[in-house]
Design goal:
2 copies of one chain form a homodimer. Chain A is built from 10 helices and 14 strands. Chain A is of the alpha/beta class. Chain A has 2 domains: 168 residues, Peroxisomal Thiolase, Chain A, domain 1 (3-Layer(aba) Sandwich); 151 residues, 3-Layer(aba) Sandwich (Peroxisomal Thiolase, Chain A, domain 1), CATH 3.40.47. Chain A has a 5-stranded mixed β-sheet, sandwiched between helices. A 5-stranded mixed β-sheet of chain A has the order 8-14-13-11-12, sandwiched between helices. In chain A, helix 1 packs across helix 2 and helix 3 packs across helix 4. In chain A, 62% of the residues are buried. At the A-B interface, helix 4, strand 5, helix 5, strand 8 and strand 9 of A face helix 4, strand 5, helix 5, strand 8 and strand 9 of B. Strand 5 of chain A pairs antiparallel with strand 5 of chain B.
């Protein structure tokens, strides 16, 4: 158990709301089908000026303001997104510039565990803080998924949205119960092809004539992800909760990666959680890739759905295919 | 100080050697100029079948064999490269598949601090191992820089090479002096534009008509990097060595990021290290981005240049601009 807390959270949502009616018209499908298939009624799309850096820095400023801290108080910045702003340098270094950090102040790095990047980063920085490497760390997840939607694959084209969320993580002050109890992440390489963006790297280089435009877009096999995830997540969560000594009833809130309506429904239908426990922002946000989970967490804290002292379980499945869970007292 | 050791190292070099004469002819420059400007006489270029996954997995198998371990002994895999194989999923998950890891065995994530990704990952996993999160971790740095060379920018086009290197990191067995003493990393956002690959992410998306082919290639301002790095690295190293209580004479080997001839010369000319201390594989390997440092370290260990019990300093500067140093007893 790490004596480490989430000091504050912050968010940024692009102004532009995209309702199902708009997508239905452009994709030639029924609005009802979108709601039924994905659970999403509306999502946000970033404008050209709302880059993942602009969104990430806005969420970071919100988190800093909520903590009463300045950017100069940060010892490290973690870019915890599935997709970078550019290949080099890492997104965290570009965020540092966007936030106006002075030279030499913070260590900047990106940590990528695709959709689970935020809880994975939280677990990692808990160890860094507990061992005294850093004291105050900013984690930023910012995703501009709308840049990589394939209109030919309507299941994923209607699922994703853009957003950014950020958290300040620091040692727990004395007298407060906040803690990171532990985390567990397990990759299942047999599912590595279930969710892909093939392009962007050296495997399918943007300048390679063999790289097609489709390779630079999301390709998801929703039914296979669901089947594999649904089979594995129950035993995975049971084992994790046993290991940290939690029972389901002690959990005030379960904040899962907002992968899809079916993934969220699974939590109550088959995994033994009550609807009151499950935080769900999918209908108005869509699946915002790595920003989904911290955004849902931040919104739940902002609306007092999660309060100091509450036991909170973060988790879900992401591309990899990776299952993850992290237990914390907020 | 973390009671954590590098259990073993592994490497992979593409078969194809590219001498200065070959590049000089294709770029229309003098072979002498390449040696003088960069210190590189030869570098390796990957073939089409030597993807960063193929190279990374080969280096990982080499490290596993050197440790007498199987892939199933790994609790986590860290992809520690500046450039990914593809955008989603993370490179570590793809490496897990390449290595034949069974489902659910290891946690896979990428950690990116550009050229300093390896020492940054080593510092991070030391904290993860010391706090009991993982026991045996594989770090893989694999770079296919030759995919992103701009023939119009000859200074960088002749500098880079392809390679992969890997390390197994684990708790130090009793009776051995191996340890990670500490690390320090500091980003200087004013240098964020000195080394870039703008493309590959959502900022300059591969499918955006405004993204030019040049944006998907390295763009480096060597003189500015050198000036900023040379001004900062002395005080940075002095402060780091003071903090961990090391003097220069105690250091058996200094393994720096093989950024350029000028960066390596600086270590002996102005930073107080002797030529015997400085490990230098630049002439035959080139700058292999994040793979450079672990490759130089692995080659120094393989040739008994570094032995168990030696104090070793890793460090240098990378895109960001980030300075870094990590002290270990091998």
């Amino acid at each position: 158990m790490f004596p480490v807390q989430i000091t504050s959270l912050g968010t940024y949502l692009p102004a532009r709301r995209v309702a199902n009616a708009e997508l239905a018209e452009s994709l030639g499908i029924a609005p009802d089908w979108i709601t039924r298939a994905t659970g999403v009624r509306e999502r946000r799309y970033a404008s050209d000026s709302e880059t993942s850096l602009v969104m990430g820095a806005a969420a970071a400023r919100d988190a800093l303001a909520n903590a009463g801290l300045a950017a100069t108080d940060l010892d490290a910045i973690v870019g915890a997104s599935a997709g970078p702003h550019q290949t080099i340098p890492c997104t965290a270094a570009l965020l540092a510039r966007e936030l106006g950090l002075p030279d030499g102040r913070a260590a900047c790095f990106d940590l990528n565990a695709t959709c689970l990047s935020f809880p994975f980063a939280l677990h990692t920085v808990a160890a860094q803080i507990a061992t005294g490497i850093y004291r105050t760390i900013l984690i930023v997840s910012s995703e501009r998924a709308s840049r990589s939607l394939n209109p030919q694959e309507r299941e994923s084209a209607v699922l994703f949205g853009d957003a950014a969320a950020a958290a300040i993580v620091a040692p727990t002050p004395s007298g407060r119960a906040s803690a990171i109890w532990g985390g567990r992440f397990a990759t299942h390489p047999s599912g590595a092809d279930h969710t892909v963006v093939l392009g962007g790297g050296t495997g399918y280089h943007p300048n390679d004539p063999a790289t097609t435009p489709e390779m630079n877009l999301f390709r998801m096999d929703g039914p296979r992800i669901y089947r594999q995830g649904a089979r594995l997540i129950g035993p995975f969560l049971d084992e994790f909760l046993r290991a940290i000594g939690w029972t389901r009833v002690e959990i005030a809130a379960l904040v899962a990666h907002q992968a899809s309506r079916h993934a969220i429904d699974l939590l109550t239908d088959r995994l033994g959680f009550t609807p009151a426990q499950v935080v769900n922002n999918l209908p108005l946000r869509g699946n915002c890739v790595a920003a989904s989970l911290p955004l849902a967490l931040a919104e739940a804290v902002a609306t007092d759905r999660i309060r100091r002292g509450d036991r909170v379980l973060l988790g879900g499945s992401g591309a990899g295919l990776t299952l993850g869970a992290l237990a914390l007292t907020y």
